[in-house]
Amino acid sequence: MSLVVRMAALPALRILPGVGGGDSRKEHKVRKLVALSLLVVLAVAACTPSTSGTPSPSGAAAKTTLRLPEAAKIVNTMDPGISSGGAGLEQIQNMFEALAYVDQITGEIKPGQAEKWSISSDGLTYTFNLRSGLKWSDGQALKASDFEYAWKRATDPATKSRYAQTLWPVKGAEAFGTGKGTADGMAVKATDDKTLVVTLERPAPFFMHLAATWTAYPVRKDTIDKNGDKWTLTKDSYISNGHYRLVEWKPEQSMTVEKNPNYWGENTGPDTIVWTLYDDVATKSVLAYEAGEIDRAVLVGADITRAKADPTLSKEIKKFERQGSQWIILDTTNPPLNNVKVRQALSLATDAKRLNEVVLKDAYFNAVSIVAPGIPGQKKENALGYDVAKAKQLLSEAGYADGKNFPPVKFTFASGAAENKAMASTSSSSPWRTRLSTTGGRRERISRSACTSAAGAPTTRTRTTGTTCSSTRRRTSSTPTGRTPNSTGSSTRV
Question: How far apart are CA 172 and CA 188, in angstroms?
Fold first, then answer.
C-alpha cells in the first residue's frame, strides 16, 4: 500500500493518492503520525493502515482505512470558493482537483483536470484543454463551463470569498471583485465543453500556480443553487471531482470520504479516509494515536520532546519542510513602537535560536527574510540577529535607558496552539475569531501573524502590516503524502 506525494500549491496537509498519466511518484507508508502546530509540524510514520474485517473476494485486496485527526471546527470552510486555507483544506484538497497541480518533488506544473494548455506569445491568454470523459463524483459530466462558473463565483463579492484575490490577475477580475465590474467583464470563458480560455490583465509568470490553488477548483452550480450555503454538508449535495468523495460528515465529530469511482485517473490510496474531529487536536490526537485509534497525530511543545525520547515514537517521526512565514506585527502608529530604534532593539534582544530550540522544540528555522526559502525569487536578506548590547544601546538612544519609563506593551496572540502557552509572559490570549473582531476596530500593540505560500510566488500571499520583529521559521511540516501545497514556516524581520 503506498501513497504518492504531489503538490497543489497551498498551505495544508494532504493525504492524496497518486494518479495515472505518468506522474513522478514518491512512496510513503500509509500510516502516519504527524506533528502539527499552527501552520506546520512534524510527521511520524508508523505501521500500515487498518484493514476491514470483512472478508474480501478471492484475490481481491483487503479494504483499507486511513484514520486522521482534525480540528473540530471545519464547518463553513469546506467550500473551495470561500476557504482561505487552514482547517478543512486537507479535506477539500482530497475531494477536488484543479486544472493543474504543482509537483512537490520537482516543482513542475503538471496536468490535472486539463490534459494540456497553451500560452499566447504575449503571455496574456491561456487556453486549457480538458481531459475527455471527466465526471463529477455523482457521474455527471464535468465541463469547462463548471470552471468558468466557479472562478466567477469565487470572484463575485457576494460570495465573500476569503481568497478571491488569487484570481485577480484575470482581466476584469479585480474590477468585478471590488464592485466596479461585472461577471461578464471577467475574461474567463468556456468556448466549448472541453476548452477554457483565460485572459490576464498583464503577464503573470506565476499564474499557473494560482490556477492550481483551491480557489480555482470547479464547483457545481446546480447543487449550490439548490442548497445554498448548506451545499457542503451532505454526501448528496457535496459533489466533487477529485480522488475522493464525501460519505458522511458529523459536524464536530468526524468526516468520512471514500475513493471517487468517477475520478479520471488511477487512485492507489486508501479506500476510505476518516477524520476524527478534536476540540484540542494537539493533545487528544497524540493520546488517540498511542491508543491505536488513529494513524496520524499532532505533536507540539512537550510532546515533541517526549516523542523523541520514546523508543517507539522516535522511530516514527518524520519531518517535512513547508514554505511560509510567521511574524510579530508591531503598531508603529503610537509610542513607543513608532520609534524605529525601539523596534530594532526588540528584534536584537530576541534570541530566536534559543526560542526555537528551547521553547518551540526545534520545530522551526530561524528566518532571515519575510519570504521563505524555496519560493522563487527568495533572497537571503540580512536579519539583525541577536545582540543584547546593541539592543540596550538603541533603547537608550530612544530615551529608555535600562528600560526606564518604558510603558507596558500587550502582546496578543490567537489561542489554540499549545506552544503559545510557553511564550510571552505579558500577553493576551484570545480565540482566533475573537481576535479578528477585536483587531478590526483597533490596532494591537504587538500581535502574532502568519501566512503560507499558496502559489509558490512571493507576491501572491505575503502582505505585512507595520514592522515585524524577530521570531523563528518552522522547520517541520505535516504533509506525509499526497499533493500538498507549498511548505510553511515562521518568518521574522524588522
Answer: 9
Quick check: 273 and 17 in contact, CB under 8 A? no
pLDDT digits 0-9 by tens, 272-309? 999 999 988 888 999 999 999 999 887 887 888 888 89
The CATH number of the domain holding residue 126 is 3.90.76.10
Distance, CA of 376 to CA of 302 (rounded, Å): 34
Q: Which grid cell is 348? A: 536584537
The residues near 466 (Cβ < 8 Å, ≥ 6 apart) are 329, 330, 331, 332, 333
Three-class DSSP category at 83:
coil
The grid coordinates of residue 395 equal 533603547
Q: C-alpha cell of 406? A: 518604558
Angle made by CA atoms 174, 166, 184, in degrees to the nearest 5: 40
Q: Which residues, other chains included, contact 310 with Cβ-Cβ below 8 Å and sequence gap of 6+?
A: none
- Residue identified by cell 511548505 is 487
Structural domains of the chain, count: 3
pLDDT tens digits, 127-182: 999 999 999 999 999 999 999 999 999 999 999 999 999 999 999 999 999 999 99
Q: Does one domain contain both 262 and 344?
A: no
Peptide bond between residue 336 and the one before it cis (omega within 30 degrees of 0): yes
The reply to whether 481 falls in a domain is no
Cα gap 124→126, rounded to integer Å: 7
Query: Domain range for residue 263?
Result: 63-96+221-298
